[in-house]
């Protein structure tokens, strides 16, 4: 049976332009709806292990993150917390799919380092899609606050210019767009 949980101090953005913000602790099902609201992030999984002493949370099996800014699905989601309870690292593993509007990303592993704002997609190989445009390579790295993307090695980008009104690709896959 799937349980629904709400976490605090997650600042996970496992996609260009994506950030997951949530609250700490588990919501108790007291008959109230646990559905997402405009300011809530809902994480569901088959199992949640939360260890205060080891400072981690592990969502295992059929993980779904529904955030007002993005959606994520994976087989496993691990959050490592700082000494003060904030998220330090967020790692999604196993058939990771991130969706934000018309942007999607796929990878076997997506890792978000909160302090640096760095998001790394690896395995699969990873792909980032916007409409029918596709970026792929062995590793795709985004810096959330720097409007920067790096794709290597074997980087490949397929762009349909008419999808950008016949203009350039200035906003293609840039975080924050």
Describe this structure in words.
With 177 residues, this protein is an all-beta fold. The protein has one domain: lipopolysaccharide transport protein A fold (Sandwich). Helix content is 0%, strand content 54%. The protein contains no helices and 15 strands. Strands 1, 4, 5, 6, 7, 8, 9, 10, 11, 12, 13, 14 and 15 form a 13-stranded antiparallel β-sheet that branches. Strand 5 (47-51) and strand 6 (56-67) form a beta hairpin. The protein is globular, with a radius of gyration of 17 Å. It starts with a strand and ends in a 19-residue tail after the last strand. Residues 1-32 and 172-177 have low confidence and may be disordered.
């Amino acid at each position: 049976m799937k349980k629904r949980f709400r976490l605090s101090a997650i600042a996970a953005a496992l996609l260009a332009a994506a950030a997951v913000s949530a609250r700490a602790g588990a919501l108790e099902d007291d008959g109230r709806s646990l559905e997402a609201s405009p300011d809530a992030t809902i994480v569901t999984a088959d199992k949640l292990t939360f260890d205060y002493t080891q400072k981690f949370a592990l969502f295992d099996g059929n993980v779904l993150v529904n955030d007002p800014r993005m959606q994520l699905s994976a087989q496993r989601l691990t959050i490592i917390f700082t000494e003060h309870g904030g998220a330090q690292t967020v790692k999604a593993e196993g058939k990771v799919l991130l969706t934000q509007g018309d942007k999607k990303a796929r990878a076997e592993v997506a890792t978000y380092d909160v302090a640096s704002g760095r998001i790394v997609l690896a395995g699969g190989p990873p792909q980032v899609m916007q409409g029918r445009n596709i970026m792929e390579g062995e590793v795709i790295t985004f810096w959330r606050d720097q409007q920067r993307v790096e794709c290597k090695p074997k980087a490949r980008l397929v762009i349909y210019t008419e999808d950008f009104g016949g203009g350039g690709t200035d906003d293609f896959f840039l975080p924050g767009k």
